[in-house]
Write a structure and sequence with these properties.
Its EC number is 2.4.-.-. It comes from Poriferisphaera corsica. GO terms for molecular function: hexosyltransferase activity. InterPro entries: Glyco_trans_2-like, Nucleotide-diphossugar_trans. It is a single chain. By secondary structure, the protein is α/β, with parallel strands linked by helices. It folds into 2 domains: about 10-225, Spore Coat Polysaccharide Biosynthesis Protein SpsA, Chain A, CATH 3.90.550; about 265-310, no CATH class. The chain is about 45% helix and about 20% strand. The protein has 13 helices and 9 strands. The protein has helices at about 25-35, 55-65, 75-85, 105-115, 145-155, 170-175, 185-195, 215-220, 220-240, 245-260, 265-280, 280-295, 300-310; strands spanning about 10-20, 40-45, 65-70, 90-95, 100, 120-130, 135-140, 165-170, 200-210. Strands 1, 2, 3, 4, 5, 6, 7, 8 and 9 form a 9-stranded mixed beta sheet that branches. A hairpin with a 5-residue loop joins β6 and β7. α9 (about 220-240) packs antiparallel against α10 (about 245-260).
Length: about 300
Amino acid sequence: MHMPSHNHTPLVTVVIPTWNDDQYISEAIQSILKQTFTDFELIIANDGSTDNTPVIAEKFAKQDDRIIILNKPHSNGSIIRNHALEITRGQFTAVMDADDYSDHTRLEKQVNFLLENPDHVAVGSWFVRVDPEGNTLGMKMLPETHEEIDSLHIEGNAGAIAHSSLMYRTDAFRDIGGYSERPCATDYDLALKLAEKGRIANLPEVLYYWRQHLKSTSSNKSIEQARCAFQAWIDARNRRDLPIDHNTAERLGDEIKTMKPATKAQILSLWSRYALHYGELPVARKHAMHALARNPFCLQNWRIFKWSLTG
């Protein structure tokens, strides 16, 4: 493990877990090193990468002594994040995925919010989806207040706060035991648990850029994610002594039963719709053409392609 030489305790720890992200991790690291807020340490938690990710991370660590490299055998995202928690020193912890990047003011604005709102244990933000090349697919606005976010989550509607845009109080995170080691939906589980420790919120501005690509967990494990999210919802209702609403349980169960893994053509079509809605016609056209190439017999793909030509 590469550790910095100084003994200063930073206010913020940024954690970037990574596994075979050599195509994107440089941009992720640079987006943190260029932050307007500078009192941070950056833990790059390498989950057994077999590509050039460790080499890239070490190169940055030699140039900036705020960077800590944590190397562990490959496991999963939750386990490597919990390993990073063991060495986290900051009062606040910011999380980010290795294929994404942050606005240069993100840390400053989130730190200020948590300092000014001691009753809040976590804060996220709106985000922009980008494609593998970094082209804008569209902005996602999320509810701002604790009441809005948690009411959606506790009723079985995940995603009201974007995990990778989060900054949370490290003590609160440790109090809830860190990340669940379920194979997925740990972000939903985390948000539910943090909301039981204090208030959570979203800043109403874009501070995070979430990269979409065909090999991402969210693209490839939708059914497993839905099952894990369903269990996280049940666990949260039980922790809060709330009854299990049978209509909601039936709805979520039916969604899982009828869910099918998305094809690459369907994912590309979705990207095209995102971009079309946001007015990014060239990007929408590109992904519509790729979707058609994979499934030329889908009428919806042809409609989207036509809309991308005409707006």
